[in-house]
Specification:
heterodimer; A: alpha/beta; Rossmann fold; 6-stranded antiparallel β-sheet; B: alpha+beta; 2 domains; 52% helix; 15% strand; elongated
């Protein structure tokens, strides 16, 4: 379970976002909807330990994470969290498998790579360079890298943002399928996809948008 | 990690090859500049002035010293062998070595002398020349022309290629000197009588041809023009004067070792009174030459320092630019959870590989250049040994390696203070 309490994040442009308390239950899928700048991605980054909240706490599986040193947050992220970035965060000149095997630098087991790529329908692209793949294929590679380590939590920031609706819908369906039994929190603008998630959270109501500091 | 580092470098191979080339060029220039300046300096210093007097025809003292000790330039001319005989019978003198030069083999100069001239030099094979037309060759000559014991050399008139060949009097190789890394490596040594006999024969065969020669100067033993077997011949080694037939009884210089300082002063003063002779102390002349070389060395050292500073700057900039290009990649790795420790290690490893390969290639390039330049420098009496490594060269290589890695550490440490989203 992920529990956020009194979260607040300040930005360099002298604005801040205050979050209402949230609870994400284990094994459920959540869709975060909301306008741009309402704090959806910031929330994911704070849960992932990429950003630290300025106040409040984030408890994951009963452990307070927000106050931990960055090294521990990084370790937790690479072992327990599968993060799918909006712009994929892949190395274009590297092959699909090398983009997945980059996790081995932190001794993450990627032996299930073939199986995962097969389940996403891109096993035949395993040795292709990412720069030669389509947007949908790249998104699947990003998903494969996120789930190959069998994480407990999957965070997806606009996983369909660069895809057309049909492909985006297919990607979401696959994501939901392979996330069964895990906690999935996905940020998206498209409320047509909400039917695939267990729960939809309107972030406009959670934060009320940015305020000046 | 090593495997990933190699893969990561492979995808940027064009950029990395360019970086390596840049480092190799600048680093090899630094290594080469330092090594050459040291070897040139050593070359002068290692030629010990065993003889305290050199007597030759009047002219330039530097030319006389450089010609007899480093075999550079042309002889000043010739003087009569009678001087040798006179000095030989002088009780004040320990050793007298006649010296003559005027012929060559494919550009390698031939020195007519006595075995005493090679005293202290060890033979790698064979024995010292004794009979007429026997010769001992320097290791460089043996290597360059693939000569071995028993081979015969057709020498030619003059100190460079293209002179009239002495087909009738080939020299037989009876000994090969050990490599000395001095000008001795590039010279052929034979008996004085061989040079005289060669030219007696040539003179009788083609006297007319020689008289017509106007090209390369040679001032070997003898000068038959006018048949003056007098005391002095030659003078300043000018082409007109030194282009001549050779007669028995003349040498280009005489190297003398006196028994004591008093004897040295007396002999020097006695022969120095003869205005047609030049009497020098080779150590004094070398010291004067070295003073000029020292000045040149200082300039070279200053240039070396400038080159090194420029190299440090260039290599640091190249490494920093390389790291700047990698910022996105580092940020990406940080976002997916790879710790800065691992990222630091990865980039330090990559840049260490680049630094190591570049340093080794720079070292190899500098040695290759030394080998290629060796022949050119040999003509100036200095033999460059491409295997010679000076301790400071290790320092230069260590600095090159360090500046390939240190900017990486600075850059990654700087990035570790930011979160992955900042890039």
């Amino acid at each position: 379970m992920i529990k956020t309490t009194n979260l607040s994040k300040h930005f360099k442009n002298e604005t801040a976002i205050d979050y209402r308390d949230l609870v994400f239950e284990d094994g459920k899928s959540y869709m975060l909807l909301g306008a741009s700048g309402c704090g959806k991605s910031t929330l994911l980054n704070m849960i992932a330990g990429i950003l630290s909240p300025d106040s409040g706490s984030i408890e994951i599986a009963g452990v307070e994470m927000s106050a931990k040193p960055q090294k521990q947050k990084d370790k937790f992220r690479i072992n327990k969290i599968g993060y799918i970035f909006q712009d994929f965060k892949l190395i274009p000149e590297m092959s699909v498998i090398d983009n997945i095997n980059i996790l081995r630098l932190e001794n993450v087991d990627t032996s299930a790579a073939d199986e995962v790529l097969d389940s996403l329908g891109i096993l035949d692209k395993k040795h292709k360079k990412v720069k030669n793949l389509s947007g949908g294929e790249r998104q699947r590679v990003a998903i494969a890298r996120a789930i190959v380590k069998k994480p407990d939590i999957i965070l997806a920031d606009e996983p369909t943002g660069n895809l057309n609706f049909a492909i985006g819908e297919a990607v979401i369906k696959q994501l939901i399928e392979i996330s069964k039994g895990k906690t999935l929190i996905a940020v998206t603008h498209d409320d047509r996809l909400s039917k695939y998630f267990d729960c939809t959270i309107d972030m406009n109501h959670v934060t009320g948008g940015r305020r000046d500091v | 990690m090593f495997k990933f580092a190699i893969k990561n470098m492979a995808i940027k191979r064009v950029k990395i090859i360019l970086i390596v080339i840049s480092i190799v060029i600048s680093a090899s220039v630094a290594l080469l500049a330092y090594n050459i300046s040291e070897q040139v300096d050593d070359g002068f210093k290692s030629t010990a002035a065993y003889y305290d007097i050199i007597i030759g025809p009047a002219g330039s003292s530097t030319q006389l010293a450089m010609n007899t000790m480093f075999f550079t330039d042309k002889p000043l001319g010739t003087i009569s062998y009678e001087y040798v005989e006179k000095l030989d019978s002088d009780m004040r003198i320990n050793a007298v070595v006649p010296f003559t030069m005027g012929d060559s083999f494919n550009g390698a100069k031939i020195v007519g002398t006595t075995p005493l001239f090679l005293d202290g030099k060890e033979l790698a094979a064979g024995e010292m020349f004794g009979e007429k037309f026997e010769c001992v060759i320097g290791s460089g000559v043996a290597k360059k022309y693939g000569l071995s014991l028993g081979d015969e050399l057709i020498t030619s008139h003059g100190l460079s290629e293209g002179g009239a060949s002495h087909d009738a009097n080939p020299l037989k190789v009876v000994g090969i000197l050990y490599r000395t890394n001095t000008s001795y490596d590039n010279v052929i040594f034979t008996a004085l009588e061989t040079v005289w006999a060669t030219h007696d024969h040539s003179a009788s065969e083609d006297h007319g041809d020689h008289e017509e020669e106007t090209g390369e100067s040679s001032a070997p033993a003898g000068h038959a023009e006018g048949g003056h077997g007098g005391v002095i011949d030659g003078g300043n080694g000018s082409e007109e004067e030194s282009d001549h037939d050779h007669d028995h009884g003349e040498v280009c210089a005489i190297l003398v070792k006196t028994k004591s300082f008093n004897h040295y002063n007396a002999v020097r003063s006695e022969y120095g009174e003869d205005s047609k002779l030049l009497v020098i102390n080779p150590a004094e002349v070398l010291r004067e030459v070295l003073e000029n070389v020292d000045m040149s060395s200082k300039i070279v050292y200053i240039l070396c320092v400038i080159i090194l500073i420029m190299n440090i700057f260039i290599i640091s900039v190249i490494t920093l630019l390389n790291m700047y290009d990698s910022k996105k990649e580092i940020a990406l790795m940080r976002l997916i959870g790879i710790g800065m420790g691992k990222i630091n290690m990865l980039y330090i490893l990559q840049n260490a590989i680049i630094g190591l390969v570049s340093t080794l290639l720079a070292f190899g390039t500098s040695r290759l250049c030394l080998m290629l330049m060796g022949e050119y420098v040999a003509s100036m009496g200095i033999v460059l040994n491409s295997a010679r490594i000076y301790p400071f060269e290790h320092v230069i290589m260590a600095v090159i390696f360090a500046i390939s890695v240190i900017p990486t550490i600075i850059c990654t440490l700087n990035m570790s203070r930011k979160d992955g989203l900042s890039e």
